[in-house]
Amino acid sequence: MAMNAEDGNAWPKIVGEKGVLAFAASSERTGVVMDTIDRNYFGRGSVASTARVSKISSAAIPFQLADSLIYIQASINGSHPLWMMLDTGSSVTVFDETVSKMLGIPFLDEGNVAGPGQGSTQKLAFAKHTTLMFAGEELGDQTVATLPLGWFSCEVGRNTDGFLGSNVFRNYVVEIDYANQVVRFHDPAGYSYSGTGQHLPLQFIWNDIPTVRAEVLTQDGTAISGVFLVDSGATTAIWLTKAFSEAHPEVLSAHDTVEVPKVVAVGGELSARVGHLQAIRLGGFVVSMPLTQFTQNTSGIFAAPDITGTIGAHGQMILEPNEHFGDPS
Question: Which of 106, 202, 224, 329 is the most exposed place for a label (fewest CB within 10 A)?
Fold first, then answer.
C-alpha cells in the first residue's frame, strides 16, 4: 500500500510469484550494497532513528500469501504475535488502531498521511522508542504509527494487524522467495549477493518509499519510460496514473479496459479501470500482458507529477526469475 507519512518521522507482484527479490538495506549505518541518489537521505525525519539491531541469522522464515500480499508474524514491545503485511510502499510501520488501543501503546504525535485514495484527509498518530520483533530478531528504538485498517482487512479478506514498512527495509537486506514462500532478513554489513539476478538501482522521491525506472511497451514496440513506486502492498501488477494514461493514449484504449468498483484506500476512495498492457520492461526483464489498473484519481499519491504509477514488489533491488516468470500475471 503506497503511503507516505508526512510527519512523525512496493513490488513484488510483477515478478512476484515469478522470482526471488532482494531489497538492499538503506540504513546509513552501513552503506553496504546501497545504490541511491542521496546516501545521506536516510538520516532525515524522526522516523529514521538509530536502530538497535540484533544479530541476524538469515534463516528462512515462512510467510503466507493473501491476494499476492506477504504476511509474517511480528510483535511490538513484547506483545503477542500479530499478522503484519510486509510493505515496501509504507514509509513507516503502521499498526491497526484497534490493535494499538488493545496493547495500550501511547501514540502521541500526529501527522498527515498521503495515500492512493482521494477525497478524505487522514491523520495518523506516532509512538517513539518502540521495539519491533519479527523472524526471531529484534529492532529497537523505532518510531511507528497507528491508523484504522479495518477497511484493508475487508478488502483483502484476511485479518491485517498492520504494515511492516520502511523500518524493516532501512535495516536489513530482505530476500523474498515467492516460489518457496519464505523470506530471509540479512545483515547488510556481511551480505554479498552471488546469484544470477539483476541489480536495479532505486531512487527515493518520498520518505523511504523506493522508486524504480521502467518502460511501458506499446503494441508497435514504442518504449515509454517512467518512474514507478515499488510497492509490495499492491495487489495488482501495475498501476498507471491518470496523467500518464491521458498523455499516452496509445498505451491502451478505453474499449480495452473495464471499470471496476471503487474501493476504500488510505486518503479516501480509489477508482480505476482494469486491463492489460502490451508489456513492461524492468531492467533486462520484459513481462508481457501484465494486469494493470488505470487509476482515475486526480489527487493523492497517484496525482504526484513525478510518478508514472506503481509496480506491485533500499539501495538496490535484485531480480532473479524462477520457473513461473513466463506465466501470465
Answer: 106
How does pLDDT run across 33-46, given as a tens digit for each residue? 222 222 222 222 22
Residue 62 lies in a domain: yes
Residue 329 lies inside a defined structural domain of this protein: no
In percent, the amount of the chain with pLDDT more than 70 equals: 70
Average pLDDT, the chain: 75
Q: Which residues partner with 284 through β-bridges?
A: none
Res. 29: pLDDT tops 50? no
Other CB atoms within 10 A of residue 240 CB: 27
DSSP single-letter state for residue 156 = H
User: Rounded distance, CA 267 to CA 23, Å?
Assistant: 27
**For the domain that residue 237 is a member of, what is the CATH number?**
2.40.70.10
* Strand ranges inside 266-313, DSSP E: 268-276, 279-282, 285-288, 291-295, 309-311
- Tell me the whole-structure pTM to 2 decimals: 0.75
- Binned at pLDDT 50, 70 and 90, residue 57 comes out as low
**Comparing C-alpha atoms, which of 24, 11, 16 is closest to residue 231?**
11
* Type of residue found at 65: L
Tell me how many domains the chain contains.
Answer: 1
- The residue segments making up the domain with residue 207 are 1-324
